[in-house]
Amino acid sequence: MTWKTELRERVTTGAALGAHISLSDDEARQIDSVARLFPMAIPQYYLSLMDKSDPFCPIRRQSVPDIRETVVQPGEFEDPLGEEPDSPVPAITHRYPDRALFLVTHRCFMFCRHCNRRRKVGDARASLPLNDAAIDDGLRYLRAEKSIEDVLVSGGDPLILDTERLDWILSRLREIPHVRTVRIGTRAPVVMPSRITDHLVAVLKKASPLWLNTHFNHPKELTPESTSALAKLADAGIPLGNQTVLLRGVNDCPSIIRELCVTLVAHRVRPYYLFQCDLAQGIAHFRTRISTGLEIMESMIGHVRSYAVPTFAIDPPGGAGKVPILPNYLISQSDSAVVVRNYEGVITKYFESSAGPSECGSGCSCRGNSEQGQRHRDAGQSVAAMLDRSGPVSLVPQGNARELRRSKRSSD
Ligand SMILES: *Cc1c(COP(=O)(O)O)cnc(C)c1O
Ligand code: SF4
């Protein structure tokens, strides 16, 4: 079966799903009612991985609508990552100094129940703005913004585009001299590995240096089909990464994440991020405590080969972007030593260099108040810039009451 046939034959109704897994009529109706809020579309392949009778099956939880999705809790957002204000044109989210997201479609192979882009993905109205004109606007923006050296092609799922269309977009990106690397974020290897055709691989290889990040959440997803798709990509020399979302009742357990990550490494995929579930509406039942993520990190760092250890990150609302969080390894410090602990709890000290602070080599000016230094530190507005003698003394929140009083006094 070709991937396009597979797309057409996805399971989209409770009745159709009932032919594959045990569902009561009530359950089938409930699925349809939730799917009116955020559609259901399960590829036959992914469905084949599902336990037919276990409602707690991790494959089922990620793909079958749950009545709890209709519940919106306080503190949840329609746009949890605050992406809209950072979108200069509809196809672009430009948040960080050197890289940008390029959204080329709102369509996906499967609608993941935990999706944080629910407001766009699967919404027929929202898919209208990403037409050819929007892609052209996005390319124009990327051409004009010389600071963007890395473009993350995302969506939706970019690999759902026709291979020729994708080839065209990637070729346009490769023509932009300041774009040094391109990345693709896709769930195709996980939910529709048949999409990884020889033709597609050739197109991706041609766009080198291109990195591909996929989205495995559970060891059950690493099947002969998905791992042979990964092998095709790796054999073509495409560096592979994986972003996992920590999901309650799916993978919120140190041994599951550990097994997932070491198996990914064995298939030449580097675990990249482990994400705390975003504060998107309707996914409260998937959200773990942040301490769960920290517990998982504690159980992995040092215990497991480090290239199997992802970065645990949260993306708090308001558009601050990703924030990595770690257990504490630094216990204390003085001028002469730092005290650290290792994964076993052994506490040791490391002597500070007596040679004074580091200086860059001749010709480098990234420390200090040079133009280049400023650029690297994002025009003086970052914690990194504060580390410089000439950088800001403090970063003050907008609307800080004390600052407002001060400026009022000075204008009186
Ligand atoms: C995640 C993200 C990126 C990429 O960030 P990395 O940490 O480099 O993977 C870029 N732009 C936006 C808006 C993002 O959310
Ligand atoms: S593939 Fe990504 S964008 Fe698409 S539904 Fe799943 S999580 Fe959302």
Structural shape: globular
- Proportion of residues in extended strands: 5-15%
Helix content: 25-40%
Distance between the termini: 76 Å
Please provide the ordered H/E string of secondary-structure elements: HHHHHEEHEHEHHEHEHEHEEEEEHHH
Count of strand segments: 12
CATH class descriptor name: Alpha Beta
Report the bound ligands by name, code or SMILES.
pyridoxal-5'-phosphate, iron/sulfur cluster
Total of DSSP H or I helical runs spanning 4+ residues: 15
Q: Show unreliable segments.
A: none
Give a summary of the structure in a few sentences.
By secondary structure, the protein is α/β, with parallel strands linked by helices. The chain is built from 15 helices and 12 strands. It has one domain (1-321, 355-368): Aldolase class I (TIM Barrel).
Name a few traits of the molecule.
single chain; 412 residues; alpha/beta; TIM Barrel; nine-stranded mixed beta sheet; three-stranded antiparallel beta sheet; 32% helix; globular; binds pyridoxal-5'-phosphate; binds iron/sulfur cluster
